[in-house]
Amino acid sequence: MAYLPDVLLYFTLALDPIHVGTGGARLGRVDMSIVREPGTNLPKIPATSIAGACRTYAALQEPDKFPHCAGQGQAQGNYRGHCGKPDCPICVTFGFAKRAGGGFQGLAQFSDARLVLFPVHSLAGPVWVTCSEVLGDLGIVKQEPQDGQVYVASGVKANGKLNLGWLMLEIARNDFSLDGKLSDVPNEIQHRTVLVSNKMFAHIVNDNLEVRTSVSIDPQTGAAAEHALFTYEALPRACVLYFEVVVSDPRFYQVEGKTPLDGDIAKVKRTVISGLKLFDSLGIGGMNTRGMGRLRVLNLGNGGVE
Ligand SMILES: [Zn+2]
Predict the structure, then answer these.
(1) What separation in Å is there between the alpha carbon of 303 and the centre of ligand 1?
(2) What is the distance between the alpha carbons of residues 244 and 10, in angstroms, rounded to a whole number?
(3) Which of 69, 175, 248, 254 has the fewest other C-beta atoms within 10 Å?
(4) pLDDT given for residue 23 in this prediction
(5) Under a CB-based contact definition with an 8 Å cutoff, are residues 154 and 223 in contact?
């Protein structure tokens, strides 16, 4: 019998703007740009950011049992590094760093978080834009409208034309609806969805990202530092993204010569879910001190659509 790992699919709603930076790359007028997919130029949240935050928050919940298992794991000075024990849910789920006994990749592998619904202002109120290519990657088949046209859901009250920011488009259909796969997305969003062409989607997203200006504070004077005005971009509040977690069965692995977590795959999933639960209070990415980064996982109740 072929063995297939379990795939958990999670949808998330941004409760704040989210900035996961590229680490200083300057893009046009923006000093701190966010990470994008190379092919489509769409912003994304890299898998490492999601897995790292999930690991930290899962470990936070049992600080007495796993005090060393949250961070990067390389032993340094007084820090012992990851415990790497076969009964440690943090190390077995997220992996541990290489040391004398060798490293372990971890049984939960995270994908990047990709955009599926992106909020834009229109004269008909806020609408959430998507396209058939993005939906197709989720296994949802929708016919693509022409470049100057949109298909709108029933909650978008507009006659003939709809503006998305500065862009005016023709409404070709007004009976668009999302697939049941997205049923955990709030109804207010589902009913205000707008399908645009694949080409338009990337343009609309990149034209409507948040760009904020901030100042660095000089710690010695407590005032704004000289030449410290900087701009940064972020995914806006209320955008919907999705990511997958591929969970492998511990029965097929060995850690220190033992089957990890008693061979119970449910323990791996519980560890992942315990970490994801804190995303909506502690957030992910940078600029958390500027009120950014909180992300609600919408379908934690059933442990992820399988
Ligand atoms: Zn550990």
Answers:
(1) 23
(2) 6
(3) 175
(4) 64
(5) no
Domain ranges of the chain: 6-112+234-297, 117-210
68 C-alpha vs ligand 1 centroid, how far in Å?
Answer: 7
What does pTM read for this prediction?
A: 0.89
Ligand 1 mean position to 302 CA, how many Å? 27
CA of 46 to the centre of ligand 1 (A): 24
- In the reported structure, the alpha carbon of residue 118 is separated from the centroid of ligand 1 by a whole-number distance in angstroms of 38
Would you state the torsion angle of the CA atoms of residues 82, 87, 89, 95, taken in this order, to the nearest 10 degrees? Answer: 50
Q: How confident is the model at residue 33 (pLDDT cuts 50, 70, 90)?
A: confident
- Cα 84 to averaged position of ligand 1 atoms, centre (Å): 5
* CA 28 / ligand 1 centre spacing (Å): 43
Q: Amino acid letter at 43?
A: P
The one-letter code for the residue type at 62 is E
**pLDDT in the model for residue 82:** 86
Q: Residues 177-202: pLDDT tens digits?
A: 998 899 999 999 999 999 999 999 99
